[in-house]
Design a protein that fits this description.
single chain; alpha+beta; ten-stranded mixed sheet; 7 helices; binds fe (ii) ion
Length: about 325
């Protein structure tokens, strides 16, 4: 698989001070000082993970996908060009701006700008979080995940699955199509929502500690329309998360506890119970919205059926010496 992880995300927005406060005070990212209109944010040892351009409409600017080597980048570019996708090779100027060795760009069938790169630069100074958090779960799992609205799931599925080589993790068709794809052990690095629209739905960052998410939830509730989805747990990747409104009319999912897949053995399957085991009430939708009601009914059915996430996904519990002795003696 040529693409190994989600490397970075670029957002077009002119609301720079709003993004600055959002990314640091709520999400806990580190603002990187630099001249010009762009705002750059770190999440780990990479020089940047989130880029707010200071230009254009409030929407996605680009998604940066990492490949392992220059030859993998060559192979991906050839595969796309052979399939009739226009690929642009960028020189040192944009590569320097993205802090990578080499990069290409191209567009998916909905017109979203995608970049693929190799050789990310590592910062020489340690990551300093914008608020006290345990840190972001990145490394080989990448920055997190990105989820796009798509006009036509079937039309765009071919592009991501067959050209980019994303593996389908699972998919649901009710109350609307949802497809999840992995490129490493993270349950999904990319997903599409068949909402009939275009543009970014949300991106997700994963925290090392459940308390990071809980404290973020408290902070988000102090912000105007800070909560888009209440705290809840997804039924497929078992992520415990909430969704917050960004300054640019889409969401960030702030989560903990995502399932890690055995990619060698994984087989895609259709899900039927809905996207959340509990919670994730869509506060951003009107109370009488048909999808909001349908999703709530699906969660209530899961509750009546007693559906639980496997215990393996829960944080290790402290040992109880008495219970350990009982278990050992049995
Ligand atoms: Fe998500």
């Amino acid at each position: 698989m040529a693409i190994t992880s989600l490397g970075y995300i670029g957002i077009n927005s002119k609301k720079l001070s709003d993004w600055e406060g959002f990314a640091t005070d709520l999400l806990g990212m580190q603002k990187v000082d630099q001249g010009g209109a762009m705002r750059l944010f770190r999440m780990d040892d990479r020089k940047q993970r989130l880029i707010v351009t200071g230009e254009g409409e409030e929407d996605l600017a680009f998604i940066g996908w990492e490949v392992g080597s220059p030859s993998d980048l060559d192979a991906l570019a050839s595969k796309l060009e052979n399939a009739g996708v226009a690929v642009e090779w960028h020189g040192a100027s944009l590569a320097d701006q993205r802090h990578v060795a080499r990069l290409i760009s191209f567009h998916d069938p909905d017109g979203n700008r995608l970049e693929a790169f190799c050789g990310p630069e590592i910062a020489s100074d340690p990551f300093l979080s914008g608020r006290p958090i345990s840190g972001f779960k990145t490394g080989s799992l990448g920055m997190g995940h990105a989820v796009l609205h798509v006009a036509d799931v079937d039309g765009i599925l071919h592009f991501y699955r067959d050209l980019l080589g994303f593996e389908v993790t699972d998919y649901g068709l009710t109350p609307y199509p949802l497809y999840f794809f992995h490129v490493n052990g993270r349950h999904h690095s990319f997903a599409m929502v068949g909402s009939g629209r275009k543009g970014v739905h949300h991106f997700m960052v994963e925290l090392m500690s459940l308390d990071d998410v809980g404290q973020g939830y408290d902070i988000a509730q102090q912000r105007d329309e800070g909560i888009a989805y209440t705290l809840g747990r997804h039924s497929n990747d078992q992520m415990l998360s909430f969704y917050t409104n960004t300054p640019s009319n889409f969401f960030v999912e702030y989560g903990w506890g995502c399932m890690i897949l055995d990619t060698e053995k994984w087989k895609p399957y259709e899900t039927h119970g809905g996207p959340s085991t509990w919670g994730h009430e869509r506060l951003y939708l009107p109370e009488d919205d048909a999808n909001r009601i349908k999703l709530r009914e699906m969660r209530h059915k899961l509750a009546r059926d007693g559906v639980r996430a496997p215990d393996s996904q829960l944080a290790p519990q402290p040992n109880c010496p008495w219970l350990d002795t009982v278990v050992r003696n049995e």
